[in-house]
Design goal:
Elements (H helix, E strand, L loop, with lengths): L1 H21 L6 H22 L24 H33 L7 H26 L6 H16 L6 H18 L4 H25 L1
Helix pairs in contact: 2-3, 2-7, 4-5, 5-6, 5-7, 6-7
């Protein structure tokens, strides 16, 4: 019986080593929570700028040349605000995400920049970069109401593509983002609401589940 238990422990250790070598398991749930909080802050700032209700607001009236909000003084002002808003959300989400991920990687004695993390990053960035370029093309054609849905869809695809190199839970977040993006592409007047739900609430829920499941 004792010999059998030793074999089981050995197999468990081998499985753990194989998992660590093939998957980057140091993603922190706190990173997702922080990303969601900053996304909600960014969405709220956008709703204030556009002078719309953050839940029921409809910004589809923007025709590419003007907007009814008194805060929008020109087209360039409109673009400047949203690029700045998106940049700040991304910056703080990445900063806090990197901090918590590095902290967890050190705790797990896992390299933060190894072959596995490189494969994860590559598989994450290919759909993400493609989606970013596609959104710029939509912007160039004045199809601003499709940008929010496309960011959700391509972000979901990037998570789905990268999930095989990290925790499987990422896959469910990716599928949720894709479904939400498809719904948002139908209800185009509520892109800001769907964007807040997808990048804000879903990240907070996912991060909380991951934290209590793997870190608590």
């Amino acid at each position: 019986m004792e010999e059998k238990n030793q074999h089981l422990e050995t197999l468990t250790e081998i499985r753990s080593l194989m998992e660590k070598s093939s998957r980057f398991i140091s993603l922190s749930g706190l990173s997702g929570i922080c990303a969601g909080i900053f996304a909600l802050i960014g969405a709220y700032a956008a709703s204030v700028y556009l002078a719309i209700d953050p839940v029921l607001g409809d910004y589809s009236a923007y025709d590419g040349t003007s907007y009814s909000s008194p805060n929008v003084r020109s087209v360039s002002d409109f673009y400047t605000f949203f690029f700045t808003d998106a940049f700040l959300v991304l910056f703080f989400a990445l900063a806090f995400g990197s901090y918590f991920t590095i902290r967890k990687a050190k705790k797990n004695n896992q390299s933060i920049w190894g072959a596995t993390s490189k494969r994860l990053l590559a598989n994450l960035m290919i759909p993400l970069a493609t989606g970013g370029i596609f959104c710029l093309i939509l912007l160039n054609h004045g199809l601003i109401d499709l940008i929010a849905p496309c960011t959700l869809i391509f972000y979901g695809l990037s998570l789905l593509n990268a999930s095989k190199y990290t925790l499987n839970d990422i896959r469910y977040l990716g599928i949720s983002e894709i479904v939400l993006g498809l719904i948002a592409s139908y209800y185009t007047g509520y892109g800001l609401l769907f964007w807040g739900v997808g990048f804000g609430l879903l990240h907070i829920v996912y991060g909380s589940v991951m934290y209590f499941k793997y870190e608590k």
